[in-house]
């Protein structure tokens, strides 16, 4: 009797474990941007240096590529969702996301020296 119960238990546990793993992966992917403030466009325009070193979440639509800096990455014009303003952001080469014009992305950005906006991670939404 023990041999008949074991396959049943295993056949039930495997799908349950698979579902648990899938749910946790989705949860952690969505939380990649959690805890970050929305990009403060008005404060950034007034004084970009005040935001230097800070990380934010930015929702933006890709506009056009402004420059290809080779190993440093690409400078891209984006339309920031909350303000509708165009900003230039640096997307480093190690971010392999395929950038499509007019596609919307949720990005984790960091403000660097001189107000340079660098994308740390991004995903379509």
Task: Describe this protein's structure.
With 125 residues, this protein is of the alpha+beta class. It folds into 2 domains: 2-31; 36-124, OB fold (Dihydrolipoamide Acetyltransferase, E2P) (Beta Barrel), CATH 2.40.50.140. The protein has helices at residues 2-30, 41-46, and strands spanning 37-38, 55-68, 74-80, 86-91, 104-111, 117-124. The termini are far apart. The mean pLDDT is 87.
Summarize the structure.
The chain is an alpha+beta fold and 125 residues long. It folds into two domains: 2-31; 36-124, OB fold (Dihydrolipoamide Acetyltransferase, E2P).
Q: Give the CATH topology of the largest domain.
A: OB fold (Dihydrolipoamide Acetyltransferase, E2P)
CATH-scheme architecture of the largest domain:
Beta Barrel
The SSE order reads HEHEEEEE
Question: How many strand segments?
Answer: 6
Structural class of the helices, strands and pairings?
alpha+beta
Poorly predicted ranges (pLDDT <50, ≥5 residues)?
none
Topology:
Elements: H1 2-30, E1 37-38, H2 41-46, E2 55-68, E3 74-80, E4 86-91, E5 104-111, E6 117-124
Parallel strand pairs: 1-2
Antiparallel strand pairs: 2-3, 2-5, 3-4, 5-6
Features:
125 residues, 28% helix, alpha+beta, 6-stranded mixed sheet, OB fold (Dihydrolipoamide Acetyltransferase, E2P)
